[in-house]
Write a structure and sequence with these properties.
By secondary structure, this protein is α+β, with helices and mostly antiparallel strands. It contains six helices and ten strands.
Length: 214
């Protein structure tokens, strides 16, 4: 049977969908995060092993996210009380505090708005979706993982830092870029600019491919 319930797919570089949700730290809206970057991430279910490893990893890196002006917000289609019990279990069994809120999305409003429900993967669970929203409320990146495989927290810290570096300096970043690495100078848009590019003092392989240190 085909699920005809409407599901939206948000788009990059457009305002992220607003939400008003119950969380383990009280009601939260997207507007509560204005002025900060936000990593909104879903997981299939509480009390599942892969999700537990992810939540502990996010928790252990929470201070690093906050140092780059970024907050974390989890979500699953479980009840508020299930979330609270899971948080307590993680503390009791693994000794890890979960410092960020988790959305209880039993009606799937947030999950559907953000395109987290993929019927081919599971009818009533959110896949491992991750959304990076900037300090102006604009959706900047989306990453989807399958049910069976956990995410790399290193990559999300790296990606947020890369996006912030691009915004601040008008540059792009190459594959695997880390802070301190050289960045990519945007390609010239005119023939005159292309002719001038090789004399601008950058590290150039050709007119369209130049790097520089920040």
């Amino acid at each position: 049977m085909t699920d005809t319930t409407e599901m939206h797919m948000p788009r990059l570089n457009e305002p992220a969908p607003d939400f008003n949700a119950v969380t383990t730290q009280g009601p939260k809206t997207l507007g509560d995060y204005k002025g900060k970057w936000l990593v909104l991430f879903s997981h299939p279910a509480d009390f599942t092993p892969v999700c537990t490893t992810e939540f502990m990893a996010f928790a252990k890196r929470y201070d690093e996210f906050r140092k780059i002006n970024t907050e974390l917000l989890g979500l699953s289609i479980d009840s508020h009380f299930s979330h609270l019990a899971w948080i307590r279990n993680i503390k009791e069994k693994f000794g890890v505090d979960i410092p960020f809120p988790i959305i209880a999305d039993l009606d799937m409003n947030v999950a559907r708005t953000y395109g987290m429900i993929h019927p081919g993967a599971a009818d009533t669970s959110a896949v491992r979706a991750t959304f990076i929203i900037d300090d102006k409320g604009v959706l900047r990146a989306m990453v989807y993982y399958p049910m069976t495989n956990g995410r790399s927290i290193d990559e999300f810290i790296r990606l947020v830092t890369a996006l912030q570096t691009s915004d601040a300096n008008g540059v792009a970043t190459p594959e695997g870029w880390q802070p301190g690495d050289k960045v990519i100078v945007p390609p010239p848009a005119t023939t005159d600019a292309a002719q001038a590019r090789l004399g601008e003092g950058h590290e150039c392989v050709d007119w369209y491919f130049c790097k520089k240190a920040l």
